[in-house]
């Protein structure tokens, strides 16, 4: 399995995983593709196994494809799996504590406002609950801007931290809110031993890419999903 695939799946875990027939299948009741997809364990694995597994569980078959898995990618395409959501993995080192404005309130559990900000992304309350359940399986810090106009979270794993679930309220965009939250979360993580950070961002999200690159993140890998066409 690709090194980054292993890492990302550990920090955004499925509710249940099953390894068989050359795949590692993730199941999380359909909440997010990242937690409900197959990862390649054997490059020669049969695509039909993915189709069968997810159909049996009432989910649309999905595979996460990483560099070096081009042969698998080609077979998926032949079986009608469409390429969607190209995503970049960006990372940076944290040798020193980043300068941070201290405008983010960080807690060990999601506050009501942290959850309310899901509305800015247009997802349902049920979907929001599913994401909270996913993050509840790992060591997560939930940050909300002091004015309640943005949020993010940090998943801490030893000397590494994953930044995810960044949201800024529509009326506050362009005011540096996300940058402040990001810096505060990185500082929080550094204080607790993190010395490197990473995040995943959809490749065509130019605004997010500008923010993360200004914060010192650089591309270290990438992946895309292959989803079976209806």
From TrEMBL:
Alphabetized CDD domains for the sequence: NAT_SF
GO molecular function term, any single one: acyltransferase activity, transferring groups other than amino-acyl groups
PROSITE patterns for this protein: GNAT (PS51186)
Record-linked InterPro entries: Acyl_CoA_acyltransferase, GNAT_dom, Rv0428c-like_C, YpeA/RimI_acetyltransf
Listed Pfam families: Rv0428c_C
Secretion signal, residue range per the UniProt entry: none
Organism field: Nocardiopsis eucommiae
Annotated Gene3D superfamilies: 3.40.630.30
Protein name per UniProt: GNAT family N-acetyltransferase
Ranges where the N-acetyltransferase domain occurs: 102-230
Source superkingdom: Bacteria
The entry's keywords: Acyltransferase, Transferase
